[in-house]
Amino acid sequence: MPATWAALLVAAALVAVGGVAIRLRVFLRYPWRPEQAPARGSAAAGVRYAFTAGMAPWAKESTRIHLPAYLRGIVLHTGIGAGFLALLFAPWQAVVPAVVRWTLVGSVLLGALAGWLGLAARLTERHLRAVSTPDDLFSVALVSAFLTAAAAAWWDARWGPAFYLLGAATLVAVPLTKIRHCIYFGFSRYYFGLFYGRRGVIGGVQHE
Asked: What is the pLDDT of residues 84-109, one digit of tens each?
């Protein structure tokens, strides 16, 4: 990887980390109001459920009804993780074992396909179009383009500049667009499990 691209990616990563830190600082300033009612269940069991069985497609009505969209999301997010790994290991691309290389290429390519299909759904499906914001469309398009470029660059090094540029853009966009939901995901699952587990709704049997 040329030094210029490496410097750009490092700068973009610093912007992403700094932006995420600011977002978290603001988020963590919100007051925490502990529950006053007696516990009817286990908060710890609720948190465990939220991060395990509670994420299964059959655990929520919306995912049970829209299983293809759920699976598309799983593939997309797996591809995003593979895309950032591909970006991280790009300087050593030439010495990466073939099995790792083609696993990355396959993962990001499937993720890109899932992203473009999701974008098409947002543009053509009436209900999705009604709730999609410009930020939604931009974020999905950017991530899908990044994954497409990642697959192309690991297949053919001549696509490297497009991959690095889109990778830098995606990093910068993390704290500025809806991509930042990756920051809040863990918090939302934790507090969901904490609240409903303590109330005995999930994670265990209610106490009478």
From this structure: 999 999 888 888 898 988 999 999 99
